Amino acid sequence: MDNASQTAYIRDLAHQVRAIADSQENTARRKRWHDVNALRRPDRAPVLCRPVAAWNELIPEDTLRCVDVRLRGLEQEFRRILIKNDIGDDAVVLPFYSIEAVFDMDPPNQYGVDILRHEALAQGGAWGYTPALRDEEDFKRLAMPTYTYNRQKTEETRDFIDELLGDALPPKIVLSPYEPMTLGGPACDLRGMTELMMDCYENPDLLHRLMAYLRDITLSMLEQKLATGLLTPSAGLDLYASDELSPAPSETVTYKHCFGVGNSQEFDQVSPAMWEEFLLAYQKPIYERYGLAAYGCCENLTHKIDGVLSIPNLRVFVCSAWTDLDRVIDKTGRNYTIMWRQKASDVCFSDDIGVMKTSLENGCERLRGGFFQIVLRELQTLNGNKDRLHVWAELAKEAAAKFC
After folding, report:
1. Pairing of strands 314-319, 292-295
2. What is the pLDDT of residue 401?
3. DSSP per residue, 55-67
4. pLDDT per residue over 297-355, tens digit each?
5. What is the helix (H) or strand (E) element at residue 95, kind and residue range?
6. Among 87, 128, 222, 339, which has the minimal tally of Cβ within 10 Å of its Cβ?
7. Nearest-angstrom CA–CA distance, 49 and 6
8. Angle at CA of residue 287, ends 281 and 288, nearest 5°
9. What is the tens place of the pLDDT at every residue in 119-137?
């Protein structure tokens, strides 16, 4: 396609996206998330899937029509929204185009030390890295990063979108509230996973020093970015949307209008006591900045439920496929929203749809009477079953409606 044809194609996709955003169904989807996260009874539990790497099967690279790099990115983004709408889950579509605020970072490597990544060819091409913090001397090189809003780059993108799509999806500069508060990821990047685990026993003082540093640079980053006045509240999103967090018309947006989101995946195999000492204690001061909190991802929190519930502003308990759902239900009652995560392999590799249906209904029956979401994430493949997410979404909605 020539440039004019590509532009017309993208504009058509944008208008289709806007039609979904303005639809009654989209309004109903948004209300489900607001209700369940505000501990109000929704018409049924909201359902959401995120294909992640499986997008490569749903939209193969060779099916993209645009050649221009920027238009190609927009094509992929809009087609994903249209496919998700066809799948029929409760993904919320916004009536504007989000322009992420651009920040310059000093030092450019963020920490003052480089995370050295390399390809370990002897291991079949899997990536690896050399930890930057190999001994106590390396800790002396850690820096406190500064963040400067790059207005020019941000507004250049805004102006491009405004000229291209402004009548369909007007651009809006946003600053996501979902900052990296897990701390475990950067801790492993800097120190190394094996070293991090051993430090719990052999170098606890050094580990405390690392986690305090990561806590402090995160709090500093929040403060610096908040000062721009660009922070966007969580109220318009799915998963972590709640109208409780909506600021008043004249009110300045702060992190109190946002959900704080984190997890403990890297500390999955650590005892509850060590997890609380070396991770949770450093996450809590970050969570305190936020209006509401969500905790968990793919880790097993079965024996750490009490610790998670000790987060004062916790609202969403993320119950992975490896966490004992019944224990979570017993502990949380109707005081929290449970994000019930599905096991992706059971969805994508099962040959019997009936098993999937039974599993969803059993879980929803156990969750009945409480507040919950049904979420399928971290998909790496659909195993060739391109309609599987359509099937799963329909079964999940049916089960949620049956036991609402």
Report:
1. parallel
2. 97
3. HHHHS-GGG----
4. 999 999 999 999 999 999 999 999 999 999 999 999 999 999 999 999 999 998 889 99
5. none
6. 128
7. 29
8. 95
9. 554 455 556 667 889 988 9
